[in-house]
């Protein structure tokens, strides 16, 4: 028998001698939880916040971690700077994604446009159906481009340029984004690569125009968008809007390249029609 718990407050609950093999946790708060003698073998954890987490007497064997690291101490050694340095060694352009002035931002954006043109050219060598395949339950290649269209619309179109509703119906927010009026939300859409690239070309040109006119004074300023919608913020640093765009573009290209490599090794397979996720 399968037990299901929806919208329940189990604060302070105690689980002892309980088997949760194969259980699914979504939008669950475990802050402040205490776990002892817990078996996480084969567990898949995605989109989790592990801030101020303490793991003692654990065995981490054959573990893969992908995410943002900041002061991660393993056996007394903060590995975050070591990982950061190694990633920069492997990918010299990565260090340029943290620019300090306007010229640095222009250089970073030019690098991203070049790298993405190479990734798109690689993707075109696959059957189009493969570009709808969700590898390991991640976004497909086309969904990734749709999300980047959303991100540039949000942080350049809305926050910097003041277009309060810059969305295209094919834009794709993050999976757990709030569903708002006028917000695009069609995860199951299956547009062609060229359809999505046409929108992407417009969004890239928009960011390019922002970069071309960018000054150091602008970078030091703040922007406010108090109007209903997303993002909605007061006094948000201008430079952070652009840093978010750079980070989204850099990280999602790595994800896309990773999944294209998987498909090369495994073969394209079939691309199932994705279910809507709320």
From TrEMBL:
Please state every residue range assigned to the domain named DinB-like: 112-255
Q: Any signal peptide, and if so, which residues?
A: none
Q: Which SUPFAM superfamilies match?
A: DinB/YfiT-like putative metalloenzymes, Pentapeptide repeat-like
Gene3D superfamilies (alphabetical): dinb family like domain, E3 ubiquitin-protein ligase SopA
InterPro entries tied to this protein = 5peptide_repeat, DinB-like, DinB/YfiT-like
Name assigned to this protein = DinB family protein
């Amino acid at each position: 028998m399968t037990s299901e718990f929806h919208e329940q407050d189990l604060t302070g609950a105690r689980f002892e001698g309980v088997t949760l093999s194969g259980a699914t946790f979504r939008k669950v708060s475990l802050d402040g939880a205490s776990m002892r003698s817990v078996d996480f073998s084969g567990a898949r954890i995605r989109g989790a916040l592990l801030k101020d987490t303490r793991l003692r007497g654990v065995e981490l064997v054959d573990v893969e971690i992908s995410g943002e690291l900041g002061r991660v101490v393993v056996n007394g050694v903060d590995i975050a700077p070591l990982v950061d340095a190694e990633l920069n060694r492997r990918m010299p352009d990565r260090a340029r994604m943290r620019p300090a002035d306007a010229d640095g931002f222009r250089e970073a954006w030019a690098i991203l446009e070049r790298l993405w043109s190479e990734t798109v050219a690689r993707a075109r060598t696959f059957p189009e159906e493969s570009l709808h395949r969700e590898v390991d339950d991640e976004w497909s290649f086309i969904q990734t481009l749709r999300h980047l269209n959303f991100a540039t619309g949000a942080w350049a179109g809305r926050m910097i340029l003041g277009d309060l509703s810059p969305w295209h119906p094919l834009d794709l927010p993050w999976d757990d984004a709030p569903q708002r009026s006028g917000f695009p939300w069609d995860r199951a859409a299956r547009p062609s690569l060229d359809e999505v690239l046409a929108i992407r070309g417009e969004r890239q040109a928009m960011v390019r125009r922002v970069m071309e006119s960018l000054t150091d004074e602008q970078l030091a300023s703040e922007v406010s968008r108090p109007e209903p919608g997303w993002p909605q913020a007061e006094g948000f640093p201008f430079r952070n809007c652009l840093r978010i765009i750079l980070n989204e573009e850099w990280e999602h290209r790595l994800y896309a390249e990773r999944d294209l490599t998987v498909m090369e090794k495994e073969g394209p397979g079939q691309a199932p029609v994705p279910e809507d996720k709320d």
